[in-house]
TrEMBL record:
Keywords: Cell inner membrane, Cell membrane, Membrane, Transmembrane, Transmembrane helix, Transport
Source lineage: Bacteria, Pseudomonadati, Pseudomonadota, Alphaproteobacteria, Rhodospirillales
Protein's UniProt name: TRAP transporter small permease protein
Organism, scientific name: Thalassospira xiamenensis
Signal sequence bounds: none
Protein location: Cell inner membrane
Length: 200
């Protein structure tokens, strides 16, 4: 199956395609909670509309709207990377992949998943080093990094903690993908990644 033949993200009726079988239960969990972060974008939009109304109608701009919408959008974009991995839709260079046979494709899928798992693990370690500075004082007490503005929300510290958690989850997801690609038969690799089945 060529890359152009991989099933689209949406079914003809507009429904999302199922989570690929190779993503396992972990991928389905990620998919289920993704709605929360999608709603975060809607909330951010509502806050911006409220801010425009307050600023231009009542001449009373808020202190918190800009930083809050930035924070909500940021966590949505951070989570989006994990969401793409759970649907096995992360970025690939497919020049070789499209002309490869089933066995080579399976090997490439395994190799890509392993490399991505290792990379995500290193990023998670770097994220932990970042969290140590953003969430703890030198004496070990907890103090979240703040924006330093008049609102001075702890959004930077919270975002860095969230990024660490997502990177850990991303590492786990790529490990799951690698294991399931190893288990899959070469002929089933693209079929399994294109549509999920009910059994695990």
């Amino acid at each position: 199956m060529a890359h152009s033949e991989i099933p689209p993200a949406l079914e003809p009726d507009g429904a999302l395609t199922p989570v690929p079988e190779v993503s396992g239960i972990f991928g389905r969990i990620v998919d289920k909670i993704s709605t929360v972060f999608a709603l975060g974008f809607l909330l951010a939009m509502g806050i911006l509309i409220f801010e425009i109304f307050m600023r231009h109608v009542f001449n009373s701009p808020t202190l918190w709207a800009h930083e809050t919408t930035t924070f909500l959008s940021a966590i949505g974009f951070v989570f989006a990377g994990l969401y793409c991995a759970s649907r096995d839709k992360h970025i690939r260079v497919v020049i070789i992949y499209d002309i490869a046979g089933p066995k080579l494709r399976r090997a490439l899928d395994i190799g890509i998943s392993i490399v991505c798992a290792i990379s995500s693990g290193f990023f998670a370690w770097a994220g932990w080093l970042m969290v140590q500075r953003a969430a703890f004082k030198p004496d070990g007490s907890i103090h979240l990094e703040t924006t330093g503005s008049a609102f001075n929300a702890p959004y930077p510290g919270l975002l860095k903690i969230f990024m660490l958690l997502v990177l850990i989850a991303l590492t786990i997801q790529f490990v799951v993908l690698a294991i399931n690609y190893v288990r899959a038969k070469p002929d089933d690799v693209r079929a399994n990644s294109g549509a999920a089945k009910d059994n695990d």
